Amino acid sequence: MPIGLEDKLEGIIDLITMKAATFKGEKGEVVEWGEIPAALAQQCAEKRQEMIERLAEVDEAIGEKFIMEEPIAEGELVAGIHSQKCPL
């Protein structure tokens, strides 16, 4: 998920790891990883949940964990996305 848009793009948020990458330097060539800005935390949580729901529709193992409300590891999300070619 982007932090800002177009010429105001400041970074991205990885919805799998729930970490923010902000672009620093003259041309944004330095990437710093850190916490998600508080103003975007709720929206990120919603987008991550939506991503998991969509992946649960096409990946049986993730779908089962989702239904049982069990935690889904980052590695499971990555593997599920890659194996299913999920249209997120």
Short description:
With 88 residues, the protein is α+β, with helices and mostly antiparallel strands. Helix content is 40%, strand content 19%. The chain has helices at 41-56, 60-67, 74-84; strands spanning 2-3, 11-14, 19-24, 30-34.
How is this structure best described in words?
- There is one protein chain.
- With 88 residues, the chain is of the alpha+beta class.
- The chain has one domain (2-84).
- The chain has helices at 41-56, 60-67, 74-84, and strands spanning 2-3, 11-14, 19-24, 30-34.
- It has a four-stranded antiparallel sheet, with no helix packed on it.
- Strand 2 (11-14) and strand 3 form a beta hairpin.
- The longest helix is centred in the middle third of the chain and has 16 residues, at 41-56.
- It is elongated.
The helix fraction, in percent, is 25-40%
What is the N-to-C order of secondary-structure elements (H for helix, E for strand)? EEEEHHH
Rounded mean pLDDT is 91
Compute the separation of the termini in Å: 12 Å
- The percent range for strand residues is 15-25%
**Structural class of the helices, strands and pairings?**
alpha+beta
Number of H/I helices: 3
User: How many beta-strand runs?
Assistant: 4
> What is the strand arrangement across the widest sheet?
1-2-3-4
The geometry reads as elongated
Kindly report the oligomeric state of this protein.
single chain
Q: Uncertain segments of ≥5 residues (pLDDT<50)? A: none
Number of domains: 1
Rg value: 15 Å
Q: Please summarize the sheet with the most strands.
A: 4 strands, antiparallel
